[in-house]
Specification:
Blueprint (H helix, E strand, L loop, with lengths): L8 E7 L1 E2 L2 E7 L8 E4 L6 H13 L9 E9 L8 E8 L12 E7 L1 H5 L6 H12 L5
Parallel strand pairs: 1-6
Antiparallel strand pairs: 1-4, 2-3, 3-7, 5-6
GO molecular function, one term: hydrolase activity
Protein name: NUDIX domain-containing protein
InterPro entries: NUDIX_hydrolase-like_dom_sf, NUDIX_hydrolase_CS, NUDIX_hydrolase_dom
Length: about 140
């Protein structure tokens, strides 16, 4: 029998950094902030999914020539049942315009690692990316 919990949720996410802080988004009706991006649809590459999600969530595009892969991060999938895993391909990029919360996104905010980890709810995938960016001395 197929066990959906064994199949990780494949996503693409953006680590957009400004003033040594990383952008995080909060969905309408939710309390936690997480990385902008989303699920990779069948037939899409992580890069294609990221471009689509950034247009949908932040009403802007990735600046040409700035997209580079930060890495693949695996963690418990935030907001899903116990045992559900996240497989997140994360990219660093600049945006062509000021990001705006659109669609399902209620709020966007830039965080230092300490500000994010001090929140009452945090996404494990975001925490892993913050740790990597801190190690690379890209965020405070």
């Amino acid at each position: 029998m197929f066990d959906d919990k064994l199949t990780p949720i494949r996503t693409a996410a953006l680590a957009h950094i400004r003033d040594r802080r990383m952008l995080q988004a909060r969905s309408a009706g939710k309390t936690a902030f997480y990385m902008a991006g989303g699920k990779i649809d069948p037939g899409e590459t992580p890069e294609q999914a990221l471009h689509r999600e950034i247009r949908e969530e932040l009403d802007t595009d990735i600046a040409p020539g700035t997209l580079r892969e930060l890495g693949v991060f695996e963690a418990p999938a935030f907001g899903h049942g116990h045992g559900v895993r996240l497989h997140m391909t994360c990219f660093i990029a600049e945006l062509v315009d000021e990001p705006q919360a659109t669609g399902e996104i209620a709020e966007i905010r830039y965080f230092t690692e300490a500000e994010y980890t001090a929140m009452s709810e945090t996404a494990p995938g975001s925490r892993l990316v913050f740790a990597k960016l801190k190690e690379l001395d890209l965020v405070d």
